[in-house]
């Protein structure tokens, strides 16, 4: 049974003051996970919008090294994990992506922020006990456009998983993680731009990297976010997306590495899929492929939510980079 809470929506001075119709699938989802769920501003020129997770299966075929992989037919979110094997499986587009097949474009959120007829997110809750809870807000896009670098389009790939993570202490948000390319940024919740209780995330045009403020974000140097430079993500207040309106909800057990849906009708096996959510990087011999200083125009698709370090020690993933808990909103490390 879905319940709806109506929150008055208004925009004043470019800052959203509210958002309507947050659908909640079961009361067993911790209330604070919903109350503080991020809202996402998509860029005004975004061509590759949030996408239905299951539609990715309907428009791809499993392959390894560009050879078909045997698997269940039809492929669904209930049986996707049956593709797991020692060899990496790639969900490869059935149509040449340079023709821009329609499924890559996703679904534009409506006036309430909902992607109608498209479940485009997953919310995963890891309760560490003693009042410590991490909530992962996973966002899915069918395509990542990598942007332009010195006149060259680089870093495109089919499939794109991005996320925010909020670390709660006794139901109160403490820190928020914003995924960005190979790393990201963590901020104290108290200093973030918000819509009521809900922190705002700005999605980079094409790349969907998440930022705490709008504007330009250079990410040429790993773990350093500058206001301008060579490789830039652009963010603005284009279309407001409320991922909670079309999402799957799960509890995560790190000891068993298992997921339990809050609603028993929700598919769960897809979260155990270990392959990639897009095409394998095209070889240099492929006429679609180009390289610029060793960087490909078309890269390999991403892994799924289970590979995003769901049982973190700190709010940041453990990747060798310093985890800075930022207490000021500027597009760089302070």
From TrEMBL:
Coiled coil: present as a keyword of the record? no
Q: Where is the signal peptide?
A: 1-18
Query: According to the UniProt record, where is the region Disordered?
Result: 294-313
InterPro entries listed in its UniProt record: Vps62 (IPR009291)
Keywords, in A-Z order: Signal
Name by which UniProt lists this protein: Vacuolar protein sorting-associated protein 62
Q: What is the lineage of its organism?
A: Eukaryota, Fungi, Dikarya, Ascomycota, Pezizomycotina
